[in-house]
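hey can u run this one w/ adenosine monophosphate bound, need the structure tokens asap thx
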Amino acid sequence: MFNLILFGPPGSGKGTQSEKLISKYGFKHLSTGDLLRSEIANQTKLGLEAKSFMDAGQLVPDAVVIGMVDAAINSNKGVYGFLFDGFPRTKAQAVALDHLLASHEEKIDLVLALDVPEDELLQRMIGRAKTSGRSDDANPEVQKNRIAVYKNETLAVADHYSQFDRVVTLNGLGSIDDIFSSLSKEIDARGF
Ligand code: AMP
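ok here u go:
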């Protein structure tokens, strides 16, 4: 298996690039944001609990997202590899993910981090709000919260995987195709 984390702040292009990587390499996409939005759409208890955190631009509690990821890994045995998108978002989630994968004799092979300046992130979230219908993209206070949460809690995930030399940071500015080709080069270089 080859397990990849696509890492970066909200608005850095993880969703767009994930779609392209999945169709090229056949990864199983595991986006905790998508899983949570589907829980909300289905009006489950978990979805109802998560919604208030998401609407405020705060993180949903670790135990909730770790439980969702555990279930998703268990129900997708035999895939070539997972592409984690929007997860892990805290050091505790990263440690939990490492344990979950280790219990299947697997690990994170590569973390590709997209680097995008803050001004550009805000512009992209505003643009995305027009078509995504995502209320957390539309509100400027919520946008700023999400970037603050990224800096305060999520950057620690990159530090965690840097210890094992598994992080490659790439410029997330430029055309979608150019960014995709730089991501692909890193994956290809590892023989996937
Ligand atoms: P995303 O679609 O990845 O931008 O996620 C949208 C929102 O879902 C985030 O702002 C969080 O409220 C919540 N969320 C998604 N993934 C996670 C995660 N790994 N940990 C905690 N909250 C998450």
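The mean pLDDT is 95. anyway lmk if its weird
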